[in-house]
Amino acid sequence: MEKIILDWETAFNFIKDAFIGYGVPEDDAKICAEVLLESDKRGIESHGCNRFKPIYIDRIVDGIQNPVTNFEIVKETETTAVVDGHDGMGQVIGKKSMQLAIDKAKKYGLGMVVVRNSCHYGIAGYYATLATKQGCIGITGTNARPSVAPTFGVEGMFGTNPLTIGIPTDEEFDFVLDCATSITQNGKIEYYERIGENVHEGTVIGIDGKPITGDAATALKKIRKGDAALTTLGGIGEALGGYKGYGYALAVELLSSVLQDGIYGKDLNGKDKNGKKAPYHLGHFFIAIDTNHFLGEELCRKKGGDILRAIRASKKMPGEDRIYTAGEKEYLIWQERKDKGVPISYAVQKEMSEVRDALKLDYIFPWEK
Are 11 and 72 in contact, with CB atoms under 8 Å apart? Predict the structure, then answer.
């Protein structure tokens, strides 16, 4: 069914109030709503309102995610910190951790914060942008539930593990590379299921080593049962460089675990030994590099912009009139949506109405008029 536009103010206030209704403190609820909607502002609908209920509200209700976040620094130096999130709200843990890394970078040049026992933290690009807005290069990554197979494997051994980098530029948008180390993410398959789109060939591999195509809901069930797995960047085997995506994914897995004594791999499946739902205990890392400790933010932004403009001005392939750089498409989508609102699919419309009714909140949505 057709998506219906919900204005940004109503969307933010509703999501905030809903989180508060499920026990999240108001200031933390604002952070959660901010991160979720930032995803929709950039056109990354798989990680925005689409995940509001099933990934966050439902996990709070199931008792596997704590609405009140205990942000504990278990070890700290001038340039580093180890944080235990105690299975609180991933967005809150993520924002506080990146800001801590930025504050250290502003003082000492570089800062790195690693996290254990966290939950899904939304789009990684939010945290990289938090750094670029403050004149820093920002790098972040996270492990996730095991759904991606290593090269020559068919079993989900690690997550979609994004490696995200933000670099300040003098343009209206910074360079922000925010993508998974798998060809696609669980959230994208979930999104395809909701809108009735089939999975794309080569993105999912079956236990028999053959590509899975067709219905996204079927593919999702097979992934969750362990009968299929997502493929790394480069696809199945080595012919198109699948080993490169595998290597980057494993690097993120290591950085999300080895410095903070974090959980990894198959143990991130959200189940206990008896197969019952349990916290995910995810790990993250955040790195900030202050440009003013090198040759200055102004030079960094100008040089960064010059490089991106040179790339976009290069020769285009026949039939194409534009080359994009990371962060540009997201900026253009925001220009398109900023005066309108967030497009809400039919499935998410139902979920928002259900949450509103359960909490007895005073909202009337446009799809109900």
Answer: no
Kindly give the pairing relationship between strand 80-84 and strand 72-76.
antiparallel
- Report whether 93 contacts 70 (CB < 8 A): no
What integer pLDDT is reported at residue 1 of this predicted model? 64
Q: Tell me how long the chain is.
A: 369
pLDDT tens, residue by residue, 149-190:
999 999 999 999 999 999 999 999 999 999 999 998 877 888
Alpha carbons 71 and 56: distance in angstroms, whole number: 18
- Counting Cα atoms < 13 Å in the Cβ hemisphere of 288 gives 32
Extract the runs of DSSP E, i.e. beta strands, from the chain: 4-6, 72-76, 80-84, 110-118, 136-142, 163-167, 175-177, 204-206, 228-230, 282-290, 342-344
Q: Is residue 93 within 8 Å of 140, Cβ to Cβ?
A: no
pLDDT given for residue 220 in this prediction: 87
pLDDT, position 305: 98
Residue 268 in tokens: 């991130």
> Mean per-residue pLDDT for 344-369?
95
Q: Does the reported pTM lie above 0.85?
A: yes
CB 194 within 8 A of CB 50: yes
Which residue has tokens 């997502």? 230
Cα separation, 51 vs 6, in Å, equals 16
Which H helix or E strand runs over 308?
Answer: helix 297-312
Q: Helix 346-359 crosses helix 8-21 at what angle (to 10 degrees)?
A: 50
Dmax over Cα atoms in the chain, in whole Å? 58
Q: What is the pLDDT of residues 226-249, one digit of tens each?
A: 899 999 999 999 999 999 999 999
Average pLDDT value for the chain:
95
